[in-house]
């Protein structure tokens, strides 16, 4: 699981993806207040161990998440206080992979990063989505395919049509 500063930043800026989050056991999260308001890197990553409404008798009650960090301490926070770091399998479920042709493939590049692309008739690979880890690659792929956005190193920007 990618817990790098770069992936956290990519997730933080992927507002469309954050809106899709429905907490589940095993989700990776980090304190959003540290990331979003103070613009600092979080000190730890947590895993969701329990979730549910604060008050089951109120229809508009916020979701409360109970999470643990590697030091075995536990933290209870509201959903809006957390930043979701989707795993590779969660990102892949957002895309119907059957819609993509057999020419599309993932390639490991010379620098160790990854690209999704296809080979042209001359056998040359043309990548159209890149990432340093599989999570970064799949997040970039989801953002490009679903929202026409590409990562410029700081923000998700609308892709310019050729």
- Residue stretches low in confidence (pLDDT < 50, at least 5 long) are 56-61
Strand content range? 25-35%
Q: Strand pairing plus helix content: what structural class?
A: alpha+beta
Distinct helical segment count? 5
Q: Would you give an account of this structure?
A:
The protein is α+β, with helices and mostly antiparallel strands and 162 residues long. The chain has two domains: 22-85, SH3 type barrels, CATH 2.30.30; 89-151. It has helices at 5-13, 15-19, 32-37, 88-93, 134-147, and strands spanning 28-31, 46-53, 63-68, 74-78, 82-85, 104-108, 114-119, 125-131, 149-151, 156-158. The strands form three sheets. It has a five-stranded antiparallel beta sheet with strand order 4-3-2-1-5. A three-stranded antiparallel beta sheet has the order 6-7-8, with helices on one face. The chain has a two-stranded antiparallel sheet with strand order 9-10. A hairpin with a 5-residue loop joins strand 3 and strand 4. Residues 56-61 have low confidence and may be disordered.
């Amino acid at each position: 699981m990618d817990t790098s500063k770069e992936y956290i930043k990519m997730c933080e800026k992927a507002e469309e993806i954050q809106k899709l989050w429905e907490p589940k056991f095993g989700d990776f999260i980090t304190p959003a207040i540290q990331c979003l308001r103070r613009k600092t890197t979080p000190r730890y990553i947590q895993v969701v161990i329990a979730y549910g409404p604060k008050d089951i008798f109120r229809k508009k009650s916020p979701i409360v998440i109970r999470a643990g960090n590697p030091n075995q301490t536990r933290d209870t926070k509201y959903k809006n206080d957390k930043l979701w770091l989707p795993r590779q399998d969660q990102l892949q479920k957002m895309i119907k992979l059957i819609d993509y042709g057999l020419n599309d493939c993932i390639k490991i590049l010379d620098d160790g990063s990854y690209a999704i692309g296809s080979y042209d008739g001359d056998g040359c690979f043309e990548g159209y989505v890149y990432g340093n880890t599989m999570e970064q690659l799949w997040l970039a792929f989801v953002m490009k395919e679903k929202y026409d956005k590409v990562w410029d190193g700081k923000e998700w920007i609308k892709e310019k049509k050729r």
